[in-house]
Amino acid sequence: MYYIKIGQHFTLDGITEFNMNSKLFFDHIRANLFGGKLTQGVVDTIQSILIACKKYEITDLRQIAYILATAKHESYHPRLNPEWLPVREGWGSTNQSAINEVTAMFKAGKISKNYALPQPNGQSYYGRGFVQITHPGNYATMGKRIGVDLYNYPDKALQRPIASDIIVVGMKEGIFTRKKLSDYFNSVITDPVNARRIINGLDKASLIKDYYNIFLTALSK
What are the residues facing 87 on neighbouring strands? Predict the structure, then answer.
């Protein structure tokens, strides 16, 4: 079981089958990933992702560590997002700012389609979450998988529990790129570099591997 530190006390949450001492876990990531300081939001997001791992039956510590490492890379920022909330594309604080960010990328030729333009239902399908989903069809597909109407209400992907379900299910089942966690973490393979292909080629693969190693050590304590 995990012992999750909330504020100044501990709550017991039966998340998975192995044991983890929360003080050792948080001490390790505080010192090695978060500059000696953890916000309550960071703790809440880690707890939310761990609960999603239990919900979707992920018990391999390597896979859990890689999910956490990916989420940190994709959505945590000590200045822009110190509470580690699910984010809009481009770190936008509003719907319009995210649309503007995607539109600017389109005009600069960085993307081939402006997928943030509002659709007939009035919704915009730019990236949202701990790892961002984009395009109307992807919102619809993921929403059906996790039982949430993301197509008509895409901002639900900005809620911690839903964003946690999205990243865990997407990485476990290969929904993002058809590559999945078990391709890189199984009984014969441990490959936290190429595991980046689950999300985005090999972009920042070595950096995320470093995060993975720290989370894995912390989880193993």
Answer: 129
Q: Which range has the worst mean pLDDT, 8-12, 64-68, 77-81, 111-115?
A: 8-12
The model's pLDDT over 11-54, given as tens digits with 9 standing for 90+, comes to 434 434 334 578 899 999 999 999 999 999 999 999 999 999 99
Question: 0.85 cut: is pTM over it?
Answer: yes
Residue 20 confidence (pLDDT): 56
Rg (CA), the chain: 17
Gap between the Cα atoms of 69 and 210, Å rounded: 8
State in Å, rounded, how far the first CA of the chain is from the last one: 12
Q: Provide the 10 A C-beta neighbour count for residue 83.
A: 12
- DSSP assignment of 98-109: HHHHHHHHHHTT
Extract the tokens encoding 174: 């290969």
Span 118-125, average pLDDT: 95
Q: Beta 87-88 vs 9-13: how paired, if at all? A: unpaired
Identity of the amino acid at 32 = N
Amino acid letter, 80: L
> What residues does 190 pair with on adjacent strands?
185
Amino acid present at 149: D
Neighbours of 9 (CB within 10 A): 6
The angle subtended at Cα 35 by Cα 32 and Cα 37, nearest 5°, is 110
User: Residue 175 is encoded by which pair of tokens?
Assistant: 């929904």
Tokens 């709550």 sit at which residue? 11
